[in-house]
Amino acid sequence: MSPRFFRLLLPVMLLALLLTSCNYIANKFTDQDDAVARVNKTYLNRSEIRDIVPKGTPARDSLAIVNNYINNWIRNQLILQHAEKKLTDEQQDFSRQMEEYRKSLIVYTFEQKLIEQTLDTLVTEAQIETYYEENKSNFELRENIVKVIAFKINTDSIKAIKLARTLLKPDSITDLDALESFCLNRTQQYIISYDVWYLFSDLLKMVPITTYNESLYLENHNSVEIPASKSIYLIRFYDFRIKNGVSPLSLERTNIKNILLNRRKVELINKMRDDLYQKADKKNEFEIY
User: Fold this and answer.
1) 135 contacts: CB under 8 Å, gap ≥ 6
2) Which of 9, 59, 262, 285 could lock onto 280 through a cystine, CB 3.0 to 4.6 A?
């Protein structure tokens, strides 16, 4: 190899060595060896997606989950980096908002601990009834409701149909176990809701009742039999309420309990804040300039 050729080759060798070193350093500091995706100078590393796939997930589903995560990460990074370029440093300064959020979280966490440790969660039936009577106008019934028993029986089961008619007579429900046994063994479908309210719209999903005026229908039918293909529906209505009236207490009991508990929470927090203010005032712990 001539000295002149070596002098020409030396810069190329040095440049290649320099590029190799730079790539090595870049890999060391950016973990490119472990990267699964890149947006400009930001990398998504394998360690960041290690736990996103639930254990036991089939391989095909796992691949789809990972690909979806990577694609979403790329899209989010693109919009983030684009926004960072378009916004000024002042527009990107959220230190004040972050500090306010931190303070709010501290206060919220403290108040929740106070509620957990101090709040009286016992709500008596008398308290529920009192609230209901004093606020009936606030409890509007949104749907027609019924108390009902309904059977769907095969038309070939003559004895079962006869027994069903007996069971559906007024004041005939004396043995709940026998009624349940009949429903399980002799009917195709059934609803037992003679002592609790049931949405009329849910009943219509089971029973082929045809009516253009639900209110009028309920007012004029105590019991009804509806023949269908190879089946017959036997229904008795024990009570009903029309929508837009006052919702019965039994439907609102849980709602009222939550209302009373929320009211206690507010009162507890307000009292704590007032007490804290009064104590600090007496100790001259604050001033207004």
Assistant:
1) none
2) 285
Contact of 241 with 139, CB cutoff 8 Å:
no
What's the pLDDT tens digit per position in 50-107?
889 888 888 888 899 999 999 999 999 999 999 999 999 899 899 999 999 999 999 9
Residue 86 φ/ψ, nearest 5 degrees = -85, -25
Contact criterion met (CB below 8 Å) for 187 and 268? no
Give 115-174 pLDDT, tens digit per residue. Answer: 999 999 999 999 999 999 999 999 999 999 999 999 999 988 889 999 888 888 877 677
**Domain coordinates in residue numbering, the chain:** 1-29, 31-89, 96-139+252-284, 141-241
d(C-alpha 149, C-alpha 224), whole Å: 11
Q: How far apart are CA 26 and CA 14, in angstroms?
A: 18
